[in-house]
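New to this. Please check this fold:
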Amino acid sequence: MNTAVSGSDRVTLSALADRLVYGNPDTFDPEDARELARLLPVPKRRHFLSGRLPGLIVRGSFPSMSGSGFAAGVGNVSLRGEDISFDFDSRGRRLIRAGQWKIYRYPSAIGIEQVMADDCDDARATLLEFRRGEPTRMLLLVQAELSIGPIGIGFGRFTPWKVPA
């Protein structure tokens, strides 16, 4: 998908996302959803696996090296470096930033996420589903975490949220 979006289109995308997410708590305006879809064309597949693999986001960190010893005139000292962190998002260039939103397009859905949200917070991402070009429902991402010793694995699932008005 071409992510070269004009400044005025970004403002429109941001306003549409605001209305869809923050509008009525149980319904959304289907015209807003259609306009959002019109501004975000369906991405072209680059190879046969495109669109078949899920969006994958991986974030993590490792503790850094530390040291301790004895310094003359000071006594015991210890030094600790900053943690080493990594970040991977398989959606890559399909993402468009518009205001407080990250918006991305799938063949039959549009994802809307808050940019500055903590990944472990609920209700920070939604999926707007389409069938034959018409919006059918919005789903809300609900997060869960599985801890195995020092390793924490977060995952989410989309649950029904809003229907067209």
Notes: Helices lie at 7-22, 30-39.
